Amino acid sequence: MRLSLALGALMNAFSRGCVVRRVSGVSQAPAQSVIAAKHPFQVDLSANKLYPWCACGYSKKQPFCDGSHKKAAPGLSPLRFTVEEPKTVWLCGCKQSKNPPYCDGTHKEELVQKAELHTCPESTT
Ligand code: FES
């Protein structure tokens, strides 16, 4: 029964778009991404350059990583990506996109719009 409850909570977190990963150690809580912004960031990207998209939501240099995950969310790491040609893209700021690092419109959903900034949507209920 306990296992099914824990599994249910974990599946609920995934279905809400929260990034949940186990970290080493028994007493440490799983790290979760938080909403950095309720909108995407328009960014001009260069070809073949490695970009670290902030996956935790704690970076002060959104939408890119500034290393904040090391203290704020040690179980998370940035999503590193490149593009093959120069282009302008919209990178996710809410950290709930199902197509990271790109915005997929999830930020428009009530779950994100009604949540507090710097929280995971599941923790606002
Ligand atoms: S900003 Fe996250 S889905 Fe649009």
Topology (SSEs and partners):
Elements: H1 2-15, E1 20-21, E2 31-32, E3 41-45, E4 51-53, H2 69-72, E5 79-81, E6 87-91, H3 110-113
Organism: Microcaecilia unicolor
Protein name: CDGSH iron-sulfur domain-containing protein 3, mitochondrial
Domain Iron-binding zinc finger CDGSH type: 38-75, 76-113
Key features?
CDGSH iron-sulfur domain-containing protein 3, mitochondrial, 2Fe-2S, MitoNEET_CISD, CISD, alpha+beta, binds FE2/S2 (inorganic) cluster, 3 helices, metal-binding, two-stranded antiparallel ribbon
State the share of residues found in helices, binned by percent.
10-25%
Q: Number of domains in the coordinates? A: 1
Largest β sheet strand count, sense and barrel closure:
2 strands, antiparallel
Report the strand count: 6
Helix and strand composition category: alpha+beta
Q: Please count the helical segments.
A: 3
Bound molecules: FE2/S2 (inorganic) cluster
GO molecular function, one term: 2 iron, 2 sulfur cluster binding
Keywords: 2Fe-2S, Iron, Iron-sulfur, Metal-binding
Cofactor: [2Fe-2S] cluster
Pfam family, one: zf-CDGSH
Describe the protein's architecture and organization:
The chain is α+β, with helices and mostly antiparallel strands and 125 residues long. The protein has one domain (2-124). The chain has 3 helices and 6 strands; from the N terminus they run αββββαββα. The strands form 3 sheets. The protein has a two-stranded antiparallel sheet. Strands 3-6 form a two-stranded antiparallel ribbon. Strands 4-5 form a two-stranded antiparallel ribbon. The longest helix has 14 residues, at 2-15. 30% of the residues are buried. The chain binds FE2/S2 (inorganic) cluster (FES). FE2/S2 (inorganic) cluster binds at residues 39-40, 92-94, 96-97, 103-107.
